Amino acid sequence: MDTPHTAQVSHTEPVDQTLQDTQEQCLGSPPEETRLWVRNTEGSFERLCNPRDTVREAAQRTEQLVSMETQSKDNAWPSTQPSATSNPGEEEKFQGQPGICGLTNLGNTCFMNSALQCLSNVPQLTEYFLKNRYLEELNFGNPLGMKGEIAEAYADLVKQAWSGHHRSIVPHVFKTKVGHFASQFLGYQQHDSQELLSFLLDGLHEDLNRVKKKEYVELCDAAGRPDQEVAQEAWQNHKRRNDSVIVDTFHGLFKSTLVCPDCGNVSVTFDPFCYLSVPLPVSHKRVMEVFFVSMDPRRKPEQHRLVVPKKGKISDLCLALAKHTGVSPERMMVADVFSHRFYKIYQLEESLSSILDRDDIFIYEVSGRASITENSREDVVLPIYLRERTPARDYNNSYYGLMLFGHPLLVSVPRDRLSWDALYHILLYRLSRYVTRPSSDDEDDGDDKDDMEEKDSIPKLGHMAGTSSQDFGPEQAGPSCAVAGSSRAPVDSTPGPSHWPQRARRKHLFTLQTVNSNGTSDRSTYNEDTQAQPYIAIDWEPEMKKRYYDEVEAEGYVKHDCVGYVLKKAPVRLQECIELFTTVETLEKENPWYCPTCKQHQLATKKLDLWMLPETLIIHLKRFSYTKFSREKLDTLVEFPIRDLDFSEFVIKPQNEAAPELYKYDLIAVSNHYGGLRDGHYTTFACNKDSGQWHYFDDNSVSPVSESQIESKAAYVLFYQRQDVARRLRAQSSASDPPVPTASGSPPSSDSMDVN
Fold first, then answer.
1. Which of 186, 208, 482, 581 is 20 to 30 A distant from 223 in Cα terms?
2. Beta carbons of 42 and 85 less than 8 angstroms apart
3. Which of 10, 188, 44 is nearest to 104 (CA)?
4. Residues that are catalytic
5. d(CA 75, CA 238)
């Protein structure tokens, strides 16, 4: 920093005059761009932003230190650069194509980089900042704005990117400014590029709004007047409060028509828009993967891929599986298995929307032998868990840990065979595919007392559902649908756990124990509803499990032919999405319309039409779908044209047939999103305004691409330029003054005053 100069200025002198005087006294020949900073009482520097303020209004004091900062030749302000660079000389020597500049990922900021690259490649907006036209329109006093800071930060970024002196730049200052004015973008969480774009366009508009004092404007309904008159009035009212380069470039006009379903009252208004958020045609089908577990122990579980109604019920899932297996839907129970236990057992009437794609869904075949009345049901279904004793002990050497393993089962048991001994043999048969039966020499039948106690009957169980009877080997019929009265397991109307034989009895290969729904504690010590259906745990000693239990076979499954089926998503044309956008829809209950005739809120029908389109049209493809139970990303391929996107069929305003280019658009940028809802990555395709060459921007990496690579399932936000605007910009470019000499010409002044 040079030795400070003393400058005498008047208290009533505007800041811009102070700047000019300081330039003359300090630099002699003033550079292209400078700005002033003052040191406050805390020792830090503050910008003198508003050039129209006087020195007194800017609260400058006598002998106050003022720093003047000048822009470097790469259009960067020294105050926005990192305090130290690894090799500043390398960037100093670099000379590349303006605009072909990457943005460093600061940590999950690819969404911001993508939005910035798209906006940076809007020709007329970038020229506006490169030619400093924004300086005369900065609105520092707008209460809805951001004191001009967002506009200045964006301008600095654009100037650096289009200087041709950087392979990539670090948008740290811009990121800090965004987080300061929009707390949702603080930190380094992943966000949506369209949401950042929406904030940025609004922030730039308010920072550059030419309207310094907004007047109150009353919105008027059409009231039967001609559309032309109402639309012109609405646009004039909009411009009375909003007039900026953002409005000039991106704002268009909707026609909104609401019709009351009761009285038929029609309300017509015209509303401005900055971008179109168009829906994608949504399939009413859904593909779900499930595992089918047969009652036949010789059959391995089968993996199935089923096509079901997106808004269907559990019964629809069973019906779809029945077509593959030949098993009646009434003989199926659907369960969500998580961490070797039943997370939930579904009822037939429950909605499929409660099942997420990541859930492990098992559908068990059970018997169907039951009557309509509860007391006459002949079978019950027992949830079965597998546990292994671990050698872990407590300090008394008296505790053995039990750990769940394998897949749980739902086993049908005849009511008249509810004894420990009968249940043991039923389970041994059910596990026979991967549990080896011991020979007669290996079996330990225990003493006579054990044999007597093992024949104690299990209490009668009720509250079960079922259907027709059918025998299948030693395992008999049981209920057919989800358990009545409980979402997790069958329900029991008999005495509670204290009436069950609770002693863990060693019988042959394993012992049986009643447990809670988590399978982690005995029901005798677990404080739960005594009416709840008991769960049964098969407890294995480590040695017995190692000797008789085949883990590889137990985990084995087969894939049904349907697993290879892929629900083909036919590509849709962008025009179809726009048609869907302009389709009549009924308002939702959460967003009713107040009818001035009925004097009450109504679920009116609403239709949006395009009346006037902007110079640059932003189309947001609504790929993310959110419902009460589910969230999904639609990876439908949307076919969009690179050139000649014709909107003449969608614009209802009387058209000028002599100027068809007013309704035709060419693509200039695309924001892409790869991945799903939980994680993903944003990139950009953009057409350079100077060379006409398309490039792929992936954070700090930039590479040329062909037009055939642009269309993909990742396309998320599309930027289109109206053809008459492109023609006008080309004419202006060819008629402009000769270009400014490059870095090889006369070097710029080095007398820049950095911020201390």
1. 581
2. no
3. 188
4. 110, 681
5. 35
